[in-house]
Amino acid sequence: EAQVTQNPRYLITVTGKKLTVTCSQNMNHEYMSWYRQDPGLGLRQIYYSMNVEVTDKGDVPEGYKVSRKEKRNFPLILESPSPNQTSLYFCASSPINSPLHFGNGTRLTVT
Amino acid sequence: KQEVTQIPAALSVPEGENLVLNCSFTDSAIYNLQWFRQDPGKGLTSLLLIQSSQREQTSGRLNASLDKSSGRSTLYIAASQPGDSATYLCAVRQTSYDKVIFGPGTSLSVIP
To answer: Is the pLDDT reported for residue B96 higher than 80?
Structure first.
């Protein structure tokens, strides 16, 4: 089944403790991206990648890192999480200039 | 900087009505525009994607149009049903840097 898989679905952590949210797609898509969704602010793009070893900043990249070492994986790394990074995170992928396919989301709480 | 807006923010209609959701964007340099629905606490489901060279796309009871020169897209839902209740989001993919910008969404409630 074609899908975008995010893990974990729920994560509660403390300020400053490094964490990684994984994203994997099995559709051989070139484009992958991360978003955060906050009440009143909607969905905002954090980072995106056009292909292996190519990443670019979205609108809200501060406090996040990504890597694209393999085509199927695009992990989101929070080196030192803070409470203002508490949010619902989505990963998405697509072929170039084609519909985005979204994962089921990761709800992150930073205390 | 690209800005995407959606009107109305919320809409409540009786079952069976035809309805129109609006999406506006400020920069016409886009590859495509995509419409999604999102159920509470859930992920995004793609409904329709319109390429910048296209005028409209249809899927079942849904029809989306795009007027790139005026920066507008509409999503038409025919014969609405309670199962259509959700938040509807539009998103544009820009030609510059391939960024994706979402609108704030329209919350739709279809009353049986």
So the answer is: no
